Amino acid sequence: xxxxxxxxxxxxxxxxxxxxxxxxxxxxxxxxxxxxxxxxxxxxxxxxxxxxxxxxxxxxxxxxxxxxxxxxxxxxxxxxxxxxxxxxxxxxxxxxxxxxxxxxxxxxxxxxxxxxxxxxxxxxxxxxxxxxxxxxxxxxxxxxxxxxxxxxxxxxxxxxxxxxxxxxxxxxxxxxxxxxxxxxxxxxxxxxxxxxxxxxxxxxxxxxxxxxxxxxxxxxxxxxxxxxxxxxxxxxxxxxxxxxxxxxxxxxxxxxxxxxxxxxxxxxxxxxxxxxxxxxxxxxx
Length: 285
Known about the structure:
The protein is of the alpha/beta class and 285 residues long. It has two domains: 2-211, Rossmann fold; 220-284, Orthogonal Bundle (Arc Repressor Mutant, subunit A). It has helices spanning 2-28, 45-55, 58-61, 90-100, 114-117, 123-127, 179-191, 220-230, 237-247, 252-265; strands spanning 31-37, 65-72, 83-87, 108-113, 135-141, 156-163, 170-176, 199-201, 210-211, 235-236, 269-271, 282-284.
């Protein structure tokens, strides 16, 4: 059941992120493209869920163009405004399809669930999505896969492990060229419904602590990572909030809450010693 439950979490993350992304993207530009690789990998469930989200955005689409590109060995029938179904291997066909429909320099979001397909996509396939402006991607890799090759060309990347036990879980990677989008994704990450047995793990946590999915996640891993960061030297609250946002599974606001507890406990010191814990306050061990 764990594979099925993880698949449900992935679909909910995709749906929630699309529901926020589509209106924001259409507000920014008249043409918007959503690309879905391995559309048949899970029986077409994720691609169908994504298509329904796009079809539900009628109020935002008037006078604008919202397109979906779907690639896979056997792309399922999808109900959306404009679907470009391209049969064939995603690594081969997705970059070609993006060029064919003119996805350059328009808001572009790509979703590739390599874990469901049983493969790790070619890094060039993910890099092809950087043609968008702004561009984003959601990528799921099989347990134990190396995420580093997929960072090229993406200024902001964050990772979260979807786990059900102490064994390595599927690795979800989110990359974007827009800082505000990263903040939005983090909010979505913690807002999904919790499914029995499925929890998050921060890949940067040396203790590999499993974290329940919650609007107020357990702060233990973030506390350890912030203290490890401060071992390099003092840092401002802004720098620590940015670290939490970009290098951990947590949000910037979570870092602020943890810093308050660390200051109150005397684990760290702050300069100046009084007043609001603003961005320019310096934190030291």
